[in-house]
Amino acid sequence: MTSDATLSSHLQELRRGTVVVASLTVLRTPGYGYSLLETLSEAGFEVEANTLYPLLRRLEAQGLLTSSWNTDEARPRKFYRTTEQGDAIAVALRTEWSRLDNAITDLDTPTSTALGSEK
Q1: What domains appear along the chain, each with residue ranges and CATH number?
Q2: Cα separation of 103 and 105, whole Å?
Q3: The Transcription regulator PadR N-terminal domain covers which part of the protein (predicted)?
């Protein structure tokens, strides 16, 4: 039987990369950090602000996001948007995600020849 701690650890590892793909996908339309947190949460991505903001800074340092400050409102907000390179990376990551999902589905589909029982 799997312990809750073991499962939790594996789920965290599985989700880690998905936040990058999701963020790059959402930020094709400019958005600020808090709105991104809300959008991701509504879509089922559990991510905390203390995880997301460093991720946004890292993606910007990698040239995948660009940012600008909106000071038109009472509280200034930093808006992020994917760069051309960020858009390309997002497409490549989603393509790979789809390929891996299909591969896992294929592994989970019963076949006439089970591993270790070839005739």
Answers
A1: 16-105 (1.10.10.10)
A2: 5
A3: 26-88
User: Locate tokens 């760069």: which residue?
Assistant: 83
Alpha-carbon distance values, 83 to 15, 16, 32, 35, 86 (Å): 23, 22, 15, 19, 5
- Cα separations (Å) of 59 from 41, 82, 89? 20, 9, 11
CB 23 within 8 A of CB 45: no
The CA distance from 119 to 28, in Å, is: 52
Res 112: pLDDT: 43
Can you give the pTM of this predicted structure? 0.82
pLDDT score recorded for residue 119: 43
Report the b/e string of 58-72 with b at 16+ CB within 10 A. ebbeeebbbbeeeee
| pLDDT over threshold 60, residue 43 | yes
Please report, in angstroms and rounded to a whole number, the separation of the first and last CA atoms in the chain: 33
Q: Residue 46 has which token pair?
A: 């559990």
Beta-strand relationship, 65-70 and 77-82: antiparallel
